[in-house]
């Protein structure tokens, strides 16, 4: 037997599907698909060992699909895809786990719920940081690949699904709704990448050229060049503890026509740096 045949015998071609089933049925459609900037394990168990959101959803009777985006987690990066990035522990402390210590935005003072100190050396922080994975630098490639993969998942499920997206996974539910509007029952955007037409890392810089995504999404009238067709203007924030935002400059703004009938819930923690700007998604 040659090497290739031996490998095939040991690892026959297969298609692996994993999903979670709750303990009781719901009267309404009860399927959830969840995706994150990191691995799907973030939904299963919190860094302090307590049950995560997946356990809660299962306890409420939902059927749950947890997605690793292409090029990360159990869908790993391959050479030739492009460069990868990993956030340093110091940045994680400042932005996510111990932001009250740094006070880089006004709402950081409210950050009191993280278990432990949130600093390097604390066992909860160390477990959290160790669970992180790299992501590719090219957000257009990442979002496009995730859109295609998750559209195939929705086709397999075959009925409308509530789609959750968090952080860098935040644009994916909208991109899914764009290509599978009949299979996206509603969208829950948990502190999604943003704000519209920008990206934020304490300060606002250009980003998300299609408004809610880096990858192309359907507008009416159609967009061929997002820089020219989606010209924006700055809008002043309503309060001093919020960031100014960007909206379409035209008096007749283009519409995301495939998303018009999909309900959207944006969820923002009051202590998060997203509290500076998620208001612009309303």
Automatic annotation (TrEMBL):
Gene3D superfamilies given in the database record: alpha/beta hydrolase
Protein name as catalogued: AB hydrolase-1 domain-containing protein
SUPFAM superfamilies: alpha/beta-Hydrolases
Organism: Clonostachys solani
């Amino acid at each position: 037997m040659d090497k290739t045949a031996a490998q095939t015998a040991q690892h026959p071609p297969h298609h692996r599907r994993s999903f979670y089933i709750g303990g009781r049925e719901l009267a309404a459609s009860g399927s959830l698909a969840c995706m994150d900037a990191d691995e799907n394990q973030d939904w299963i168990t919190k860094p302090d060992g307590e049950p995560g959101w997946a356990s809660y959803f299962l306890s409420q009777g939902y059927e749950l699909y947890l997605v690793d985006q292409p090029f990360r987690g159990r869908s790993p990066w391959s050479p030739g895809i492009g460069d990868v990035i990993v956030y340093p522990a110091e940045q994680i402390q400042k932005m996510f786990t111990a932001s009250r210590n740094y006070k880089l935005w006004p709402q950081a003072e409210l950050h009191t719920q993280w278990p432990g100190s949130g600093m390097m050396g604390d066992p909860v922080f160390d477990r959290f940081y160790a669970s992180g994975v790299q992501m590719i630098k090219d957000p257009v490639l990442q979002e496009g690949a995730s859109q295609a993969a998750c559209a195939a998942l929705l086709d397999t499920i075959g009925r409308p699904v509530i789609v959750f997206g968090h952080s860098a996974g935040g644009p994916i539910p909208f991109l899914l709704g764009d290509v599978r509007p009949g299979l996206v029952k509603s969208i829950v955007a948990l502190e999604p990448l943003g704000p519209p037409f920008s990206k934020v890392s304490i300060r606002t810089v250009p980003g998300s050229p299609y408004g809610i995504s880096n990858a192309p999404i359907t507008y009416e009238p159609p967009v061929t060049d997002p820089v020219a067709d989606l010209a924006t203007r700055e809008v002043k924030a309503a309060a001093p503890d919020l960031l100014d935002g960007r909206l379409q400059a035209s008096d007749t703004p283009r519409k995301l026509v495939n998303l018009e009938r999909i309900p959207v819930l944006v969820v923002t923690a009051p202590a998060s740096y997203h509290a500076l700007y998620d208001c612009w998604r309303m």
